[in-house]
Amino acid sequence: MFHSPSSRDPVLLGLNAVPKIAIAPILILWMGFGYGPKIVVTLLLCIFPIVISTATGLRSTPAEFVELARSLCASERQIFRTFRFPSAMPHIFVGLKIGISLAVIGAVIGEFVGASEGLGWVILNSGANVNTSLAFAAMVLLSVMSIALFYALVALERLLVPWARHAE
After folding, report:
1. Is residue 142 part of a domain?
2. What is the domain-level CATH number for residue 126?
3. CA 161: distance to chain centroid?
């Protein structure tokens, strides 16, 4: 189902279109070295799928539920808490699962540009020193971390959204 674009869509699409690897050096100039630029690059990289999935989930609430709640004089807050948010939870977790892998990539991009430690720095430094085995080891570790974070979200989803389990 398609929805009509909102006034916020161009801003969100514009932020997503910015090449994150290109903005990282600018962030270092603005924010200095440290965790700030890494966090911002990571956030810019993973926020788009989370926001889109959340918005889709909030719009997916069955209209009959909302009409029923309104007919019972439920407030918008009650409708959100009782119907919209629970209906959106499976979609939110889809966005989070996509975003968690992108977050690892964002952290590495931040370390490529301005860090003196971290696995991104190790990959960059080992490439400069022609130590490919160390670079591959760091990449394998990043992959394992990304997979572990993904499955941690899957476990959290099963705990928090048991009604959304699909037949496996």
Report:
1. yes
2. 1.10.3720.10
3. 18
Counts for the chain of helices (H) and strands (E), in that order: 8, 0
Give the whole-angstrom CA distance, residue 15 versus residue 153: 25
Residue 1 lies in a domain: no
pLDDT of residue 34: 80
* Residue type, position 165, single letter: R
SS3 content of the chain, % helix, strand, coil (to 5): 80, 0, 20
pLDDT digits (tens, 9 = 90+) for 48-65: 999 999 999 998 888 898
**125: domain range?**
9-164
**Of 59, 83, 56, residue with least CA distance to 70:** 83
Give a yes or no: residue 3 inside a domain.
no
Residues ≥6 apart with Cβ < 8 Å to 104: 142, 145, 146, 149
Give the number of C-alpha atoms closer than 13 A to the C-alpha of residue 95, restricted to the C-beta side.
19
**Residue 24, in any domain of the structure:** yes
pTM recorded for the entire structure: 0.79
Total domains, the chain:
1
| Closest to 87 (Cα-Cα) out of 64, 118, 104, 120 | 64
8 Å CB contact between 61 and 87: yes
Degrees, nearest 5: CA angle 134-135-136: 90
